Amino acid sequence: MSNRDAEDEFREIKREIVESRGLLIKSSNLTAALSADVKSIARRQAGYERRITVNSATAYVLFVVVIFGGIKLWLDASMRERDAEVRTLRRGEEQARRELGAVVREKEERTALDARAQTFYDLIRDGRQQEVVEAWEQLRRERLTAVELAMFQDVVDRFRTNLSATAYQRGLEHARMARYAEAGEAYEEAIRLKEDAGHIPFVRIAQADALRHLGRQREAIVMLQAVSDGSDREAADDALFKMAQCQVDLQLFGDARTTLRNLLRRFPFGSVVNEARNYLFQLSLPTAVPRR
After folding, report:
1. For 204-208, which contacts have Cβ atoms below 8 Å and span 24 or more sequence positions?
2. Is 225 exposed, middle or buried (0-12, 13-18, 19+ CB in 10 A)?
3. What is d(CA 156, CA 287) in angstroms, rounded to the nearest whole number?
4. Terminal C-alpha separation, the chain
């Protein structure tokens, strides 16, 4: 081989070495750039993964908070609803207890009232009129039924009428024996027992007559005037006749004559019309004093 060829080959080898070196440098630079890119991508990926992790953790925490918040709200609402139900049940229980207590008390009161009503009925059945009338004043204030009240009231009214008539007869007995004070008390009792009884106008006339004998003619006149103005025509003429007698006792002869004329005008067929005519005749005599 010639020297020229050796030099050319040497230059070729050198050139290849230079080119190889250049390629190595480029490869190194590319490797370095690739490594840098890989590291940058790795950093970005790590940051992305961290963000995803943080976001996932945040979302999980928010989800858990929302879940627990919802559960708490549901529990609070349930507790409030249960508390309201408990309060309602307690109020209902208290109301039921009050109602039960009222029913028990009412039953006890009714049982006691039935016992008192039975005792009262026993008095009625035994005919103990005075005790019935006295016991009725207390029993009538009790919570009797309408039927019981009406039935007992009818019986008591009948007994009062009987007792009033008995007192009236007792007063007449006292009057016949000239015990006019006792007679007045009996008449007062008769009126008190049954003021609206049919015989009461005659009781008032008898009471006025007792007052007249006790020297209380003016009180008797007031009582007799009320009877004469009443609706009982059978008693009115007797009341007018007794009134004329009281007026004569007071020496009110003109008033007595007027009363007798009024009697004859109102009751021309009354039971005392003949006595009234005779009495008026006596009062009309110039000097005669009529008998009392």
Report:
1. 204/235, 204/239, 205/235, 205/238, 205/239, 205/242, 206/168, 206/171, 206/172, 206/175, 207/171, 207/183, 208/239, 208/242, 208/246
2. middle
3. 55
4. 209
Apex 223 CA angle, 222 and 226, nearest 5: 90
Q: Is 243 within a domain?
A: yes
Rounded distance between C-alpha atoms, residue 278 and residue 285, angstroms? 11
Give how far Cα 27 sits from Cα of 17, 22, 24, 143, Å.
15, 8, 5, 122
In this structure, is residue 168 part of a structural domain?
A: no
Q: Alpha-carbon dihedral of residues 44, 46, 48, 54, nearest 10 degrees?
A: -150
Give the burial string for 73-101 (b: 16+ CB within 10 Å, else e): eeeeeeeeeeeeeeeeeeeeeeeeeeeee
Question: For the chain, how many structural domains are there in total?
Answer: 1
Report the SS3 class of residue 285: coil
Q: What CATH number does the domain containing 206 carry?
A: 1.25.40.10
Q: pLDDT of 149-204, one tens digit each? A: 888 888 888 988 998 999 999 999 999 999 999 999 999 999 998 888 888 899 99
